[in-house]
Amino acid sequence: MHPDTLTYTVWEEMLAAQMRARYFGELVSRYQKMDRILGVALLVLTSGAAATILSRLPDDYYWVTAILAVAAAGVSAWRMPARYADYAARAADLHLQWSHLAADYESLWNNLYADDAETRLSELQERGRDLSKASTHFPANQRMLMRWWDYVSAQNLAKYGSRA
Question: Among 61, 115, 117, 135, which residue has the least CB neighbours within 10 Å?
Answer without folding.
Answer: 115
